[in-house]
Amino acid sequence: MNAEIVAVGTELLLGQIPNTNAQWISQKLATIGIPVYRHSVVGDNLERVKDTFQLAQSRSDLIVVTGGLGPTEDDLTRDAAKDVLNQDLMEDAVSMERIQMYYEKNNRTMTENNKKQALVLSGASVLQNDEGMAPGQIVEAAGKVWVFLPGVPSEMKMLMEQRVLPYFRNVFDLKSEIVSEMMRFIGIGESALEDELSDLIYEQKNPTLAPLASEGEVSLRLTATGESDQEAREKVASIKDAVLQRVGSYYYGSDEVAIESRVRDLLKEQGLTLGAAESLTGGRFIEKMISLPGASSVCQGSLVAYTPETKEQVIQVPNFIIKEFGTISYECAEVMALNAQHLLQADITVSFTGVAGPDPSEGHQPGNVFIGLQYCDEKPIVEHYYFDGSREKIRNRAVKKGYELLFHKLKKASS
To answer: What range(s) does the MoaB/Mog domain occupy (predicted)?
Structure first.
């Protein structure tokens, strides 16, 4: 069985809201061994919705449709499905009663168009919606399975977890389970990672490996199928071990783990505290840490100083450093890290100074960044980088690089 997800709603095409439903549904279907081959999005136009449904019907075994089940004129999913599947629409008495009770309970007058939400296809298995008004529906027609769900995420998720997935497990002979893990690496590029793993990638069948680049780091998706969840997980674990033997020094976690949370854990394990001195990053580095639970046990704070005068007054950068070398320099980044350690009473401090743009500063072009690292009583180190892109991207890259330096230092210290 291969699946396709169709999202109905002009607001998705306009970019007013992201299509997070499709991502979530894909993950859930994968857990029961149903691969999703396509995602489609169509606006609120009856003919285009019908065309999209017909195309999906021609190429997919399972079509999951989200959105277009509301009470207004632009909610067209039911009408399109009626024509494509050649089924009548009928009022579901239970759904209608629930809608009426909602309005009575809240002392509100129900408008006539709300009755539309109780309409279902004549051949549908109706899925009662405990989170909203419009029910979900499962329809089997012409050898295809259709699932119609509301577009509101909370309603869609409830129906999928409590109604749709159990239905699939009971009705269909699902002979395989799919398990996927996203390994995350920092300090190595996508091409270098692929080169290190080229034979594993070339020989892949089950499990499969796919490198994916993102800002300042790279991920590796491992996916395996098996006749049971345990078998699939064992396959993923086996290939993961092979990957770690080659590039394990760059690995910091899997799936939803962020680099700053891994750094927090290493700081806790080693009983160390963190501080920062920030110029172009404007407090963004330490904000990432403070946003995590348990940050108070490892985070001392940050000194944010943007102008040369403030660097001199707040971080106590000597005036001769600023005059002789400038604020965008190896020397300034070094003394910022050193002084922040003393002022914040932190074990480790990271400093940031540079040009985010859009204009040059002190003769330096945008993207020219110095990052300092002061670790306990060791001699401070300073790294010099050139980042491309917009002002926002340069600042984000600087923050990510700061956490990269810190992660590798802490990992080395713990080994």
So the answer is: 4-170
